[in-house]
Amino acid sequence: MSKVQLYVYDLSNGLAKQLSRQLTGRQIDGIWHTSVVVFGKEIFYGQGIDVTRPGMSHHGRPLQIVDMGETSIDEETFNEYLEEMRQHYTADKVFEEKKASWLTRL
């Protein structure tokens, strides 16, 4: 079993919240990006599916860490899944929801 966490980042580093109303007339709290942490790895979608040590991505420090539960899937099976997903997910597709759902399925 491995714990599954969702890391939440604001890619604007707070600037969206500070400047959005002045620039757009609407309040935007952040430009959100998420990654999933499992098996001691942070997995996120950038120019494809990327893997790094938790908290060491170029996104900086996560604003929020959400515990998503645990997975009963073993690391080898998950790595095979990631390799398969790398072939299907290109720059125009969102990946995090499907990955978190797959990891925490019963």
TrEMBL record:
One of its GO terms (molecular function) is peptidase activity. It holds the Pfam family Peptidase_C97. Belongs to the DeSI family. Residues 2-106 form the PPPDE domain. Keywords: Hydrolase, Protease. This is Desumoylating isopeptidase 1. It comes from the Eukaryota. One of its GO terms (biological process) is proteolysis. PROSITE patterns: PPPDE (PS51858).
